[in-house]
Structure formats: structure tokens, C-alpha cells
Amino acid sequence: MKTFIVGISGVTNGGKTTLAKNLQKHLPNCSVISQDDFFKPESEIETDKNGFLQYDVLEALNMEKMMSTISCWMESARRSVVSTDRESAEEIPILIIEGFLLFNYNTRVYEPPDSPGYFDGHVWPMYLKHRQEMQDIPWEVVYLDGTKSEEDLFLQVYEDLIQELAKQKCLQLTA
Hints:
Distance between the termini: 13 Å
Oligomer: single chain
């Protein structure tokens, strides 16, 4: 049985969780794993020279636990659905993984606003670092425009997923 895994990433407070949960409501057989659930305790989070806790780095996360959770989901998905020659797109288990890696920020306004120096001293450098890492990975990455409405972003991602699931179904039927 095939599984379908989707990653949603972006700036902190950028709507990743909202988008993931909205997609989960509309897609059959869909689960969400949120990277926010895997932060280490505050006592284990390093502080930068300006006194800011460094939450926007991978070291702030228990990635082993997150990867274990993802592996358990994948194993469970393989066992829970019996594969047939007539699998439909609705039967393909979907996992949405959403996390904080930063891809866009410049048009966001936060309430309450960030502490002075936080964006320039921490958020922007982390954005540049993580974006470069993503550009170096040979995966197909679709960048979303954070200035669009929540509904427009949902519709774009939902339609892309439905098209991809249909392709998967066609591949299964021809295999």
C-alpha cells in the first residue's frame, strides 16, 4: 500500500497548523504530525547573545522522537489498510507533517510584536539558513505566497493534493 506524505513548512505563526488541520478535515484517511509537539523542555533550549531562547533551530527539537512518531505512523498505515488491485485515492493514507522552518516573513505583522532585534538578529538569519538547506535538497518543493488569504492557500494545496492522489491512483492501476 502506498502512503502519501506532505510537508508544510514556513515562518513561526505563519498558519502551518491551521492549513494542516483544515486539510485534515477535508481529506480522507489523513493524519497530522506537528513539529511543535516535539520541542525540548525550555530548560534544554539554548539562549543567544541577546537573551532570546533559540526555538527556531533544529537543536530545540527532539527530532529522534519526531522521526520515531513518523515511522510508527508509516508502519501503522501499512498494516491497517489491506491493499487491493482496486485501491482508490480515498484509501491512500495521507500524513501531513508541519513544522517551523522559515521560508517567508517580510509581509507578516505579529501581535504582540517581536522583541526589538529578534527578527534581524535571529529570525532572518535562520530563514536564510533553512531556505538554503531546502534549496540544496533535490525534492519537489512548492512555495506558497504568504500574502494570500488562508482560504486561497487551502484551496491551492487541497487541489494540488487531489491531483497528486489521482496521479497515484493512475500509477497503481497501470502497475
